[in-house]
C-alpha cells in the first residue's frame, strides 16, 4: 500500500507559503498521532503521507510558489470540481492521476481523521490559508485542478460511510476507491450507517472590511486620529514641495472600423392547428417513448405535427422547399418545431423511386386498379351479383344493396314469355393467356370470387407449357396469380379444408400443389420425385373428404387422381408426395364389344397394357367410399375404396372415351356422363342402361355439369356450343306429346365465336352464371336469363322425370 | 419494382382512364401521364383536399384514418389514394 506513495504526486495543498504548509503538516501529523480512534494503518498512512509530504516539500515549495493565487477550490453538489482553472498551469513533476478534479486531499492528518468521523455529503472544500492550523474539522486543501492527486484522505473523506479500509498509497487509493465504493453499495443496504453531522468551518469567500467604525469602538480613537492626519495632509498638499503635479499623455491607438457580416437570420412562422387527432398523435407518440427525438436529415422523417403551410404548390417544382418536422419532447403537450432546409437536391433522386417501391404503394395501386375496373365493369358485375342496375348516363348508378331474385325482376321488367337465353357478361382474358387452351376451372371453396383456371392442350401434340391463373371477379383483366408449369395443365381443384391449396394435374403425369396465398411461383410440392407417379397425363384430380378413414388412415382430405395409365391413386404427404393405388382400371371384357384389344386379350395374356386409361371420376356426394370412373373405352365403373381389385358395377353404353362423369348434387343415385360420341347420358345407379340420352350436335361433348341450384338443369359444352339443358322444360313438352325418348333439345344454346372451341364449363355456385372456357384462353361469363324452372322440390322433379321416362320405356 | 411498373401501365391503359399521377410528399411528380402544369395543379389542390379530408376523418375518431378518396364531378371521376409519403391520383371517365 505504501509503495506507491513514494511516487511523486503533487499533494493537494493549499497555496500557502511553504513554511506554513510544513507547519501544518507536521502539526497534522502530531494530531493524528494523538488520536487513538483509528486503525494503525490509518495512522501509518497518515504518517507516511506526512513523510511524503515532507519529502516533497521542496516540490511543494516550488509548486506553491508557482501558484500563489489559487486559493479556492469550488465543488458543486456532486463533488465535481468546477473551480475555474488557472490560466497558467505549471508542469507537474509527476502527475498521473486523472482524478485530480474531484477532491482535494488534506495535508493534515488531523483533518483526515476528522473527516472520518464526519460525513460530508457535499464536498465543497474551500481551502484557504487561515484555518489550517485549527482545522481539526478540517476542510480543504487546495488542489490544483490539473495536478491534484487523490490522496487517500480525500477519497475517504468523500466516503460517507465510516469504513476504515483505506488504502494508503495514492494509486491504490484510486483503485480501491472504486472497490470501496462498490462494497458500500452492496453492504450499505444492510448496514446501519452512522452519520455525524458537524458544522464545518466557516468558509470565507469574500471579506470586505467595513469602512466606517462606530464611535464607541476602541478603534475609534485611532481612526479619528488618522482621519485628522489625513485632512491635514490634504491641506498641506497645496503649496508643499512634497507634492508635485504632473501630467501625462497617453497614447491613443488609431481606431479602425471593422465590419462583420453574419448570415441573415431567417425567421419562419410556423403554425399548427391543435386538432383532436393532433393531440392524440402527440400523446401516443410521447407515450411510446422518444418517438421523434431528432429529425432525420432524410426527407422521410416522420412529421408528427405538420404545419398547414407545409406544401406550397406554386413552389413545388423548385427545390427550395423546407420540410417542417416537429419533435416532441418529453412533455406531450409541448412541441418544438424545427425547420430543416433542403441542402442537397441530389438526394431527391433516389427518394421518389423509394416511394414507388414501398409496399403501401403497391397495395394502393392494387386497390386503385380494382376501383377503376369496378367503374368500368360495374353494370356487369352488378348483373352477376344479381343486383339491379340502373342505367342513367348522367349520374352515378346507385347500386342498391338488396338482392332481388331474378325471377321477380324478370317478371317485373320483362315479359315472362321471353325465351331463356345466355347473356354474355364479360370474359377473363389477358395477353398472357391468349392462345392457351382452357382445360379446367375451379372455384375457390372459401372465397367464391376466386377462380383458378388451368391452361393446357388436350392433345398430345403441340404441347406448350402450361399456365395456371387465379382470377378474381374484381379484376377481369389481369389475374391475381400466375403460375407457369412445364407441361400443360389438364386439371385442377381447390382444397376445401385448406382453401389456399390448389392441386394441379398435368399432361406429363405429375401432380403439384400450389399455395395461392403466397406470391411464390413454385409449387409447394411436386410429385416428380415420387416412385409411383403417373406416367401418363393426369386427367382429373379431386380433393375428397373422407368422413371415416379408409383402412385406418387419418381422416381429412386426400387427393385422388386418375390418369391415362389406368390408375386411380390416392396421394398423401409422407416425406414428400406419395400415392397408393385405389384402383387399377382394367380393361373389361365385353362380349358385345369387338374391340381389338378385347380380342387380343382373349388370345393371350400379353397385352400392351392391361389398364384402361381413366379419364374422369367422381365420388359419391354422400358416401365417400363409392366412386364412379370413366375410361377411354367408354365404360363406367363403379368402385369402392374398400375394394381395390374389383369394380362393383360396370355401365357400358358409350362408344367413345368419357370426358366427364358427375353425380347429381340433388339425387344421390343419378349421374351424368358425357363422351366424345356426341352423347350425354343420364344414368341411375341401379340400372345398367342409361335412363336418358341427349344428343344435340355431332361433336364431342367435352364437359357436362349439373347446375348447383336446380336439379333438373345441367350444362354441357361441346366443340362449338354451350348448351343448357333443362329436363323439366324439355320433358314437360315431351310428356304432353307422349313421344318416347330421344331428341330432346337443349333449353339454351349459345354458339361460340368462330374458330374457337369451347372446352370447359363451370357453374357459379351462388349466382345464375356459368363460365365457359375456350381454346383461345378466354373464360367467358354468361348469365342465365329467364330460365324458369318449375317450382316444386328439385329432387322430386328429377325423380319424377326419371320415373316417368322409365315408365314410358317399358 | 417491375410489378409496380406493370400495374401502373395497366392502369393507364384501362378504359376511360384519362391520367395517372404519382407525386411525393413535396408535390414533386414521380410518374405522370399528364403535362406538368396540370399535374402540379392536380397535385397541389388534391393534396390540400386530402389533408382536409384526413383531418376531418381523424377528428371524428382519432384512431381512424383516411384510406381512399373519390370525387365524382360531372365529367369524370378523381380517385386519390393518399399516404404520408405520396399521393396516387387517377382520373377516369367511366361512362366513356
Automatic annotation (TrEMBL), chain B:
SUPFAM superfamilies: Roadblock/LC7 domain
Gene Ontology cellular-component terms listed: cytoplasm; cytoplasmic dynein complex; microtubule
Pfam families hit by this protein: Robl_LC7
Keywords for the protein's UniProt record, in alphabetical order: Cytoplasm, Cytoskeleton, Dynein, Microtubule, Motor protein, Transport
Main location: cytoplasm
All residue ranges annotated as the Roadblock/LAMTOR2 domain in the record: 4-92
Gene3D superfamilies hit by this protein: Dynein light chain 2a, cytoplasmic
Signal peptide extent: none
Location relative to the cell: Cytoplasm, Cytoskeleton
GO terms under biological process: microtubule-based movement
A GO molecular function held by the record: dynein intermediate chain binding
Physiological role: Acts as one of several non-catalytic accessory components of the cytoplasmic dynein 1 complex that are thought to be involved in linking dynein to cargos and to adapter proteins that regulate dynein function. Cytoplasmic dynein 1 acts as a motor for the intracellular retrograde motility of vesicles and organelles along microtubules.
Recorded family membership: Belongs to the GAMAD family.
Record's protein name: Dynein light chain roadblock
Organism: Oncorhynchus mykiss (Rainbow trout)
